[in-house]
Amino acid sequence: MLIKITKASDVKSSEITPRPLFEARRNFLQGAAAIGAGAIAASLPLPALAAQGDKLPGVVKTKWTAEALGEKDMPTAYDSVTGYNNFYEFGTGKSDPKTYSQRFKTKPWTISIEGAVEKPGEISFEDLTKPHKLEERVYRMRCVEAWSMIVPWVGIPLGDVLKRFGPTSKAKYVYFETLVDAEQMPGIRRPVLQWPYKEGLRIDEAMNPLTLLGVGLYGEVMPNQNGAPIRLVVPWKYGFKSIKSIVKIKLQEETPPTSWNVASPREYGFYSNVNPKVNHPRWSQGKERRIGEFFKRPTLMFNGYEEEVGQMYAGMDMKKNY
Amino acid sequence: MSPDTRIRWVFKPIVWVLCLAPLGWMGWLGYSGGLGANPIEYINRFLGDWALRFLLVALAVTPVRGLTGLNQVQRFRRLLGLFAFFYVVLHVTSYVVLDNFFDWRTIWEDIIKRWYITVGMAGLLSLIPLAVTSTQGWIKRLGKNWAKLHKIVYFAGAAGCLHFFMMRKGFQYEPLIYAGILAVLLGWRVWQNMAKKRKHRKVAA
To answer: What is the ipTM of this complex?
Structure first.
């Protein structure tokens, strides 16, 4: 065409990730220092039309840094974090989510807040996230299959978000649902699990300072295969608890159903806290393979977050409450 | 060229190359970075997949011969069976060396506590006497008993399919497809057996 009519969604050249930053992803520790130094303290709204891979502005560093984890827990390579995923709605192979989610539509995105809250209703992704500062949290991620990664998430504390909606005294649990869309998600046609994907947390687990609503990783907008545009991050539990592509959050009195528990109650409990002393019926949970490493390493109680979360389970039999 | 020469110098070499192709493919993936973020898991699963496939192909030889009347396919049965054993050995080796790096304690615990590994190990062990007795010498030595011994391969096929099925999370079709193929291949033999018995009864009457 003779006249180029730019759409609002066209990427301006000023928004394209600078090449040196793009190439420095693998030397993340150096890159992280650069981002931290340049971070702006005041909150900036999430660019309303940001697409996966776009840089997120105004991300604030927290105490959960790569340096705090140390040399033994270096951030996992970007290609591994975004290319080795369990997101069965897009297929059960580890590379399926990346392959089949490229056209996944993440805008517009609405989340329904329901149940035991003073202000239920539908809210857009932008309105849900805008009032909060984007934080960078470098967390361990431990899959129930006994592999693990270190992921530099970008997100907002779930507790801060929930408080805005005024949970009532009946709010004992938080229930989450993922989008189910047979047209965009080829894996939905297979009854691997009962769709939509469901997960849940106890209210104190949801309000714990560690619990994050993730909107990005490695300083960029969340890639589709990692659960765009918004997902849960609960680092002390097995990865399947960190539900992706959330469309519903409901506060309720009863224990919510969770997909893997429904599929296999003996193998996947409601809590699913990372626990090397409680094995999966079919495999041991004592060790894990850190992606990128050859030798297996011992699994840590609560995935190394015992200090932050241990008190929530004091006095509970961890074998019974698996 | 006689049919025998053709089999020995044309078709068998071709089949050898085809049987080694998966290994070559895996080598290429390793070289080109195509093994993904968890190469140890990829290699182990890849070898396991091909072990089971070769086992099923070997089990398909007799039914194919029965249905087509092509007696020459029987000449490839040992070759295919031994390649199945070869891939099973590689699969277990990758488990011992790559996945656990000779951590015998963990491996032993896996064998006695993790049912799918118990079943897998049983499958491997059952194939060893079959591999050992695959030679001409042993076929002569065992005579009629050779065929009886080698019926163990049915157990190995079942163990492999069960091992595969028990390993997956959630309800997945792939292991069921393999089990289905095995059921058809074993079912054909059951059907043949029943047909033979019916013939004998008729003759006896």
So the answer is: 0.83
